[in-house]
């Protein structure tokens, strides 16, 4: 399938490892930023309770449910497309594209639902 001599299972392992490294680096950057923010708040003698009252939990169960539901719908549609409309595209690729597309749509919907109503 690939002329460069890379086997598909090696490519899948490499992609999984790369994905884990990216997730770890994103978490580390967020953790470092939060620690730096706390240090600045301590230096400026800022009351942390004021900040926590105004901050709301933007990633709640409703958003998670919408995203998971949209991903599941994408998985079902991907499987139906694969079974009913065979093509020369790899079967797994259609499934993955459908899942990510519907997960993205779910994230957009969850963001719209979560926005506060402005009067």
TrEMBL record:
Keyword S-adenosyl-L-methionine attributed: no
Pfam short name (any one): DUF6249
Keyword annotations of the record: Membrane, Transmembrane, Transmembrane helix
Membrane-spanning ranges: 12-29, 60-81, 93-110
All copies of domain DUF6249, residue ranges: 12-114
Keyword Repressor attributed: no
Protein name: DUF6249 domain-containing protein
Species of origin: Kordia aestuariivivens
